[in-house]
Hints:
Elements: E1 6-9, H1 12-15, E2 24-29, H2 38-41, H3 49-63, E3 64-74, E4 78-79, E5 82-83, H4 86-97, E6 100-109, E7 116-117, E8 120-121, E9 125-132, E10 146-147, H5 151-155, E11 167-168, E12 176-177, E13 187-188, E14 193-196, H6 212-221, E15 227-230, H7 237-244, E16 248-253, H8 256-268, H9 283-290
Parallel strand pairs: 1-16, 2-3, 2-15, 6-14, 15-16
Antiparallel strand pairs: 3-9, 4-5, 6-9, 7-8, 10-13, 11-12
Helix pairs in contact: 3-4
Amino acid sequence: MSNKTKIFLGDSKEVLREFENNSIDLIFTSPPYADSRKSTYGGVHPDKYVEWFLPISEQLRRVLKPTGTFVLNIKEKVVGGERHTYVIDLIHGMKKQGWLWTEEFIWHKKNSYPGKWPNRFRDSWERLLQFNKAKHFNMFQEEVMVPVGDWAKSRLKNLSKTDQQRDNAKNGSGFGKNVSNWIGREMVYPTNVLHLATECNNKDHSAAFPDELPEWFIKLFTKEGDVVLDPFMGSGTTTLVAQRMGRIGLGIEIVNEYYKLAEDQLSQNLFAAEPKVKYGTTKTERSKKVH
């Protein structure tokens, strides 16, 4: 396997077996949700979802570097009038595999259109579950800092005496804040809620997410030349974004139509000079070199 962006046509569970151990810096993916995309992916029943996914996550854990991160975009499904627990069950299953469930991010779909059912309202958010192999992993928090915001201009202009020292919470919880810490700051760290519209450049895939979603996590968990894998590539959003950001993008897709779509888009967006950083060759290609 070369040191360039590359995509594979096939079943992730099988294709991943050809990848070397500890060769990936970031896995960012959104697999088919339970009973979703039946026309293209066949659909996986919620009761069978964990059983279906765990052999794949086992391979993902093997190929991820100890310093790497796995971000899983997934959401629950309502079955028989209540939320199915397959996402929670999957978290438990992955923890038994040895994964650390380090963090959970929320993608707030800020342009989600209204909707109502007899016992609930429309979802306008999705989970992004962060898993790691070790407690210490690569994380570049400064890369995702955000402007402090206009609120600071008025809030910090005339600080009260209370604001100039630790302000203990009025409810007696013991928590408090020191507002004066924000003086002179232009950038601050974000929260774990991402406010992004659902609009995306590619309309040819049934569940494509916006470029900004993988871009944010690629900034947070990788540097230029690192390897980013999407084992459920779809039309190639994550791989395209990784390539554009100077990372080595790897993608796996089982549906030929989407694979071809990603292939076309990648060929149109090739950089003249891609990062020349080596990562693990596959077993197949190592054997070819021997012969």
